[in-house]
Structure formats: C-alpha cells, structure tokens
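Before relying on records like the one below, remember that each one covers exactly one chain. Contacts with other chains, cofactors or solvent are not represented anywhere in the record.
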Amino acid sequence: MNFKRLMTGALALAATGLLVTACSSKQKANSTGQVASKQVLDWSYLAELATLDPSKVSDAYSGDIINNSMEGLYRLGKNSKIEPGLATQTEVSDDNLTYTLKLRKNGKWSYLYSGVKNADAIIKGEAKPETLGITAKDEHTLVVTLEKPIPYFKLLLGFEPFLPQNQKAVEKFGDEYGTSAKTMVYNGPFVVEGWTGSNLNWKLNKNPNYWDKKKVKLETINFKVNKSTTTSYNLYQSKQLDYTTLSNEQAKQLAKDPAYSALKQARTTYLEFNQTKESFKNLKIRQALSYAVDRQELAKNIVGGGSQPSLGIVSQGLAQYKGQDFAQAAKTTVGVSYDKKKAKELLKEGLAELGQDKLSFTLMSSDDDVSKKVAEFIQSQLEENLSDVKVSVQSVPLKTRIARGEKGEFDVQLSGWSADFADPISFLDLFTKDNSYNFGKWENAE
C-alpha cells in the first residue's frame, strides 16, 4: 500500500515516547485490498545512520534499517508475536535450558550473548570460545544451551545482536564490515543500497533472494535525513515524502488531519551524568538537577504527542507484574517530581560537600529539532531554578553523540533507550555495572 504518514518526534526527559502516524485517506488501499501499482515509499529520518553491523548497532535508526535488511532465527510480528525466521522449528528441553533449532537451508549463525552457556566467561577471557553453548548438530540444526532459563529468550532471537553474521563477508571486509551498504551482505526482506557511511539518503530495495519474498509487496523505500521537521513537512506537503515526524506545534495544528494518528513507543529519555567526573559522583548534585526540571511541562508543551513523565527507567505499557503495569509496580519515588525548593537545598549541600560555590557543565544532545528543543528547555529550567548553575548546550549528530558517549567525552548528555523486546530487563540491564551502553558509569548494587 502506498501511504502518507505524519509522526510526532517523541522525546522527553524520562518520558514514555509516543509516535504519531497515519495513512492518508487519499492513498489507502481500497476495500477490495487492491494495492498501488507503484510500490515505493519516501521516508524521512531525524538522524543519520551509524552502522549496518548488527553487533555494533546502538541507535534506533540504524536498528530499523538492519531489521529490514537482515533476519535472525525468529522475527517479531504484530504485538511482538514470535514468528519463524531462519529457524523453522524449535524444540525446548523440559528444563528450559536447551534449544534445538532447525534452520532454513541458507541459514548461518555466529554470535555470542549473555545467558548462553559460558558466553560471559568467554567475553571476560576466562573460558575458551569452543566452550560456548552453541553447536551445529548438522548443517541445518543449531543447538543452544543456556546457563539458566530465560523466559524471553525467543524474543532475544529476533533482536539485532542475534542476527547472523556471514563469516566470509566479515573476513573479507574486516574493519570496514557494515560501515557502508557495499561492505555488508543481507539475508532479510530488503537490501540496503546507496549508503556510503556518511551520506544522508539511501534506499531499501526488495531482496530477490529472501525466502519469504512473496509476502514483501514494497519494491523500494527511499530514506532521507531531515533534522528539521519544518523541512520534512514541507517535503511531505509537496508529495516528496510519504512519512514525516512532527514537532509538538505541528502536531497540535494537524491533530484532526486524517493522516495523523498515534503509535506508542517503549522508550524512555533521560539525563545521563558522567560519573567519572567529581561533580556528578555527588548524589545530591544529581538529585538537585533532577528536581529542578518540570517534566509535566516538558512532556506536554515541548514534546507533546501524548508523551508523559515516566515513573522510572522502564517505560509504561511494556510489561505486566502481578496484574499491574511493571512501571507502576516499580515506580521511582525519589528525584522525579518537580520541587524547586528541594532542588536548591540539595544543590547547596552538594556544592558544600565538593567545596564549590558554582556548578558549570555542558549538556550534549543530538542535533535534530526535537532533541535541541528538549535540551534548551532543560538548560532554561536548570538556570532559572538554580542560580548557581550554568549550562551550555552542545548539539551534535547522533552518530557523534554516541561515539563521544562511548568514550566518556561528555559532562551530561540527553540520552534515551528503546526496549529491544517486551521485558523490563531490556531497560534494567542497561544500568548494570558492566553494560557497554552505561556510558555514565552509574552503578548501584541494590
């Protein structure tokens, strides 16, 4: 179906994201199910791609492209329903520790993951790779042994890090593997074309070798990065785009447009403090900055689109716990409310503990319109509510922000996480001591 979509940029400090999107009534398939003769979509992104290597991906935009051009043992359908991917059949042992998977004839596998027997020990150099709990029983049968039952293991098998790597391609391209469309091979419904590693437009073309190609109707999806929602909406209006994200102001104006509707996103956005720096090792300083931000104002009037202040790091609506939304059951009670008086008191105490009378730092954000507006709002809140705080905003491309985050080259950054699968551990594991995406090095044993 050829269609046009409007989508709000869903980003808010500690807020569950909401994406707003819809099919235009002019271009919907008719009631008989007839599809448009030209199966091409023109799509707008807010950020550039970082990589096509599933073992290195850490941003949602690159993840979307990888998920559309590669496929794992399973694929996730509507409402995260598990569907066969490269695995056609799975037998699980009575103790839930051994998975025997029958593979499609062109399926290959080569990746490690925590929870698989000896994976953590191998990563730490404490065990040999050949002890990994993954073996090929024969050419088309894979056996995976776990260290303990993992209820969401099949969901993991549909997640990017579990996508197969083609050994010949990895060895051929070496360090260049996945850094451009030409240094990658694909086993999914589409093939990436035209991405050089730094350009702002590329294509997904239908993969003629995909095992389920009969169900793939689209021939091409054209992607173009537009960091300005004004620019992308103008392109949308001139019919050069079928889909665009919207700012809060645009969303309010277009709320009654038939092409506008909402899709919830399991995402939480937060301030990440670099705790290798003395100022941010101080708990009172971090809490003071948190209490000084009005999340209600941020979610409603800066981001919009139904975004809401979060109850903790896990997004609302992701999972249930004893009949209750997990986010509600595990909600945070300290630091997430708006309390100017408490913020001032904590800042004063924290600065005294540090032997300082002022606090100055740089807040780094991505350089799309929505991220910049959120960062500027936070800057304004902190400086207005805490007279002894000075904040400089630095907006950089998403790829650069992630690279600097990995190296610890930041004071505070506006960061976010989208659930990789429908289990709270996808969020909670992010802040464990050894998680590679815990850029701020926060840790709390309890």
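DSSP finds 14 helices and 20 strands in the chain.
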